[in-house]
Amino acid sequence: MKRKIVLTGAFIGMIAIIFGAFGAHLLKKYLSIEELNTFEVGVRYQMYHALFLLFLSTRKEIAEKTVKTIYNLVVAGVILFSGSIYLLATKSLTVFDFKIIVFATPLGGFLLILGWAVLFLAILRKKS
Asked: Which tens digits make up the pLDDT trace of 26-55?
């Protein structure tokens, strides 16, 4: 599981850097400042959670089942939260109306919060 978490964290981080560069260099020609700022929020949260996964992989005191739960919450949260933000920020570049996925952003954010909460509770319950 540790290898899977590290690989996923590294992949999510790599994609965040690619998307950040894509936004800073290519999309700035086509998007408004507000849309670029929104896109950057997706990149930022994606990178935070890539680092979170790398941190999670170092925790030996957390039960394997709990680690899997946190991993699944974070990965699903990043896909829904950052993914929907990318789509919503670039909606002016396509004919598809991405407003139908607007529910994905708060759901993804909630999953990310749950991932952090599960980590918090797992460590809180552990005796020092």
From this structure: 888 888 899 899 899 999 999 999 999 999
What is the largest distance, in Å, between two alpha-carbon atoms of the chain?
Answer: 56
Reading the block at residue 3, the tokens are 């290898």
Backbone angles phi, psi at 42, to 5 degrees: -60, -45
Give SS3 for 55: helix
7-10: long-range contacts, CB 8 A cutoff, minimum separation 24: 8/53, 8/71, 8/75, 9/50, 9/51, 9/52, 9/53, 9/54, 9/56, 9/57, 10/50, 10/54
What pLDDT, in 10s, does the model give residues 75-100? 999 999 999 999 888 888 887 777 67
Q: What is the distance, to the nearest Å, from the Cα of residue 17 to the centroid of all Cα atoms in its chain?
A: 13
User: Does residue 119 surpass a pLDDT of 90?
Assistant: yes
